Amino acid sequence: MDGLVVGLDLDGDGAHPAAWRAVAHPPRTLHTAARLAEVGRRAEAAGLGFLVLADATAGPPGAGVAGRFDPVTAAAHLSALTTAIGLVPVVPTAHAEPFHVSNQLSSLDLGSLGLDFLLSNEASGYFPHRLVKRHVNRRRLRIPARARTFTYPVYMVYPEARDEEAYEPILQGLRRAAERLI
């Protein structure tokens, strides 16, 4: 990748303490998965190179903002929704062993920077199929015949005593989401 790579820091509505006052959405929608997905897709469509997902404290007093996304969780969510943007979760290791943090991060997609490196160099790597499918179809990349395949587990934590009828739609949704990733 040549030239300047521009990214976006997804720190609430902006770095200015009063930035939350100048937006078109209500404060209660700031930290929703839908808004995170919308911002991630818009940033990718605009051609940005990466998104910074920082760990931070709660928003300004009285803003109606309850907290912030965990950067690894936010990156995991965005990695399933984007294909050509780098994700940069900023994770402090003061309260967690660096080994555990690296394990969390190693399960995320490598994003556009890793794929750009692969496309511009004689290199190999493991990427999610959905990320490289268009390049394989255009014959810019190939999947070796003896390439290993990896599966990604899907977890759901629920109470032991539960209403099966209420949880069945949730389980069906998880199954459909997992099938889309294959």
What would your notes on this structure say?
This protein is mainly α and 182 residues long. It has two domains: 7-144, no CATH class; 151-182, no CATH class. Helix content is 37%, strand content 7%. It has helices at 33-45, 71-79, 98-106, 111-120, 129-137, 164-181, and strands at 7-9, 50-54, 86-90. Strands 1-2-3 form a three-stranded parallel β-sheet. The radius of gyration is 19 Å and the shape is globular.
Major pleated sheet: 3 strands, parallel
User: How many distinct helices?
Assistant: 6
Strand content: 5-15%
Outline type:
globular
As a whole number of angstroms, the C-alpha radius of gyration is: 19 Å
Strand order of the largest sheet: 1-2-3
Fraction of helical residues:
25-40%
The rounded distance between the terminal residues' Cα atoms is 28 Å
Order of SSEs: EHEHEHHHH
Count of beta strands: 3
Total individual domains: 2
Average of pLDDT: 75
- Give the oligomeric state of the chains in this entry, treating copies of one chain as homo and distinct chains as hetero: single chain
Classify the secondary structure makeup into a structural class: mainly alpha
**Low-pLDDT sequence parts:** none
